[in-house]
Write a structure and sequence with these properties.
By secondary structure, this protein is α/β, with parallel strands linked by helices. It has one domain: Alpha-Beta Barrel (TIM Barrel). The chain is built from eleven helices and eight strands. Strands 1, 2, 3, 4, 5, 6, 7 and 8 form an eight-stranded mixed β-sheet that branches. Helix 4 packs across helix 5. The model has no long low-confidence stretch (mean pLDDT 97). The structure holds adenosine monophosphate (AMP), fe (iii) ion (2 copies) and zinc ion. The site of one fe (iii) ion has 4 residues, from loops.
């Protein structure tokens, strides 16, 4: 069984449509794919409709959360699986986050314009094709203008990494956890040690999150080095959390391939047994 529980489609900042994504997953030899677009369930139905025979889809999302307990706020990503997409509190919160992402991206367009870089809001919205707007969409506009060569380059500090970066209005981390659990979902902390992306939260927060219902840690991720990966396995063992592994595939917006990291059938079985808001589709 090859199980990859974290992938993005054009419903957020991936470059494959949900239908293309599930076809790619089957072609990559996956048996199970987690569909986890940022702050949206918009890709679920088109992915289910296009599901190839033999591929199981675990519906999910990746929530943008923020921890305010340190010297300065730290953003983190929480994967949520098998929640009820119609849960009023969770779906309203996700809609608020998506809306604030649009306001924030418009402000980044304004910052670029102030420096004479004529990225238009229309083109960013068009590229996002109705899905969750993120910095990778702005990165594509910079690439089209020849200002940067790659998405990775667009995330350097002189571009969207710092100079033109506006923070998002994320959900508070314990509020996010409550919303996921309230919608029958299973929360798994995405790439908890990915220091390459920015500041990471302390283990003490992970201990508190575990007490508040966190179910797992995404220990195996290409943004973790072998030491960070081992630390996350050890912490999960100590706290009784499951560990997952996944690619965090974003199509051509990143270089990682589907199935680059995988989750054990045992961990998946525990997640599926805990999910109460929606069902695995197919397989
Ligand atoms: P946003 O959610 O708008 O803040 O943008 C963050 C998203 O950009 C992440 O979900 C990744 O998909 C992507 N990303 C972050 N850092 C990088 C990077 N260094 N290179 C390529 N993509 C990145
Ligand atoms: Fe992303
Ligand atoms: Fe993430
Ligand atoms: Zn992701």
């Amino acid at each position: 069984m090859r199980i990859d529980l974290h992938a993005h489609s054009t419903a957020s900042d991936g470059t494959s449509t949900p239908a293309e994504l599930v076809a790619e997953a089957a072609a990559a030899g996956l048996d199970v794919l987690g569909l986890t677009d940022h702050d949206t369930t918009g890709g679920w139905e088109p992915a289910f409709a296009a599901r190839p025979e033999g591929l199981a889809i675990v519906p999910g999302a990746e929530l943008s959360l923020r921890w305010h307990g340190g010297a300065r706020p730290i953003g983190l990503h929480m994967l949520a699986y098998l929640f009820d997409p119609a849960d009023p509190a969770l779906s309203a919160a996700l809609a608020r986050v998506r809306s604030s992402r649009e306001t924030r991206a418009e402000r980044m367009v304004d910052l670029l314009a102030a420096d004479g870089i004529d990225v238009t809001w229309d083109e960013v919205l068009q590229d996002a094709s109705g899905g969750t707007v993120g910095r990778p969409h702005l990165a594509q506009a910079l690439i089209r203008r020849g200002l940067v060569g790659t998405v990775t380059e667009a995330f350097q500090p002189e571009w969207l990494g710092a100079r033109y970066r506006v923070p998002k209005e994320d959900l508070e981390v314990f509020e996010g956890l409550r919303l996921i659990l309230g919608a029958g979902g299973v929360p798994v902390f995405a790439h908890p040690r990915a220091s390459v992306r920015g500041p990471i939260v302390p283990d003490s927060l992970i201990v508190e999150l575990a007490a508040a219902g966190l179910f797992g840690l995404e220990a195996d991720h290409t943004d973790h080095n072998p030491r960070e990966q081992a630390e996350m396995h050890a912490l999960a063992d100590r706290l009784g959390l499951v560990t997952t592994g996944s690619s965090d595939y974003h199509g051509t917006n990143k270089t990682v391939r589907l199935g680059a990291r995988t989750t054990s059938p045992e961990a998946l079985a525990k997640i599926v047994a805990a999910g109460r808001g929606s069902e695995v589709v197919g397989g």
